[in-house]
Amino acid sequence: MNKQELMKTANEIRKGIVTAVHSAKSGHPGGSLSAADIYTYLYFEEMNIDPKDPKKPDRDRFVLSKGHTAPGLYSTLANRGYFPVEDLTTLRHTGSYLQGHPDMKHIPGVDMSSGSLGQGISAAVGMAIGGKMSGDGFRVYALLGDGEIQEGQVWEAAMLAGHRKLDNLVVIVDNNNLQIDGPITEVNSPYPIDKKFEAFNFHVINIDGNDFDQIDAAFKEARATKGMPTAIIAKTLKGKGVSFMENQVGWHGAAPNDEQYAAAMEDLRKAGEASCQK
């Protein structure tokens, strides 16, 4: 995909996020929207995957460590062809396979059940070690929240990843600076994030996580890095794409009402038109 196509796809993924959370009347739109460009690049450009064969042995793996932002992953999987986009409206409904957190047993394309913060990166490290031991060439990607990295288990996993020189592992931190209770700097600051990962023997790349040129360059650099895992610290805007949600902590875990939903979709419609004109 070229940059314009990636921007258009990311916009469609954002529409799916807002639609799913509105339909569920609950969920986590803010951190789903901030990471939509990362999801888009991973699933439409970077990863070796096949929606027709979700369990193919040599596929690249993705772990959503911040599992509460499942609407972002679900919308991406749906737009990539793993299941119908129309199913996004069943999010969190009784009987739906699209639960509030990713479920690897029932959702096509989900490689790891997640939701308990801090644990997803451990699973990703295990997958990466498994890939090294088996000699399979797959790569493993894990998306963490910047509030999530306040969890100690994250650093235990990072220590092992650096020790084992897991150059088939890429950790992405969605650094939107907001968590459920407010700015991460006020709750329990993890800064400087890049220096911490460097201390655990990671190759570190700092980028604007809502800029496809920088995203593209970062993942190419990660692929070329040998002998150590990579951490991409992606500075993003929480609620990106919906004007009244942007950088507002209240939209961490709230659903739009009908009027807000209409306004959000209008924002995204205009954004879609603008991307087509670039």
Automatic annotation (TrEMBL):
The molecular function GO annotations come to:
metal ion binding; transferase activity
Where does the record place the Transketolase N-terminal domain? 8-264
SUPFAM superfamilies associated with the record: Thiamin diphosphate-binding fold (THDP-binding) (SSF52518)
Which regions span the lipid bilayer?
none
**Keyword set, alphabetical order:** Metal-binding, Thiamine pyrophosphate, Transferase
Coiled coil (residue ranges): none
Q: Which cofactors, by name? A: thiamine diphosphate
Instruction: Please give the CDD domains that the UniProt record associates with this protein.
Output: TPP_TK (cd02012)
Q: Which domain of life is it from?
A: Bacteria
What PANTHER family does this protein map onto? TRANSKETOLASE N-TERMINAL SECTION-RELATED
Family, per the entry? Belongs to the transketolase family.
Q: What is this protein called?
A: Transketolase
Instruction: Supply the source organism for this entry.
Output: Schaedlerella arabinosiphila
Ranked from the top, the taxonomy reads: Bacteria, Bacillati, Bacillota, Clostridia, Lachnospirales
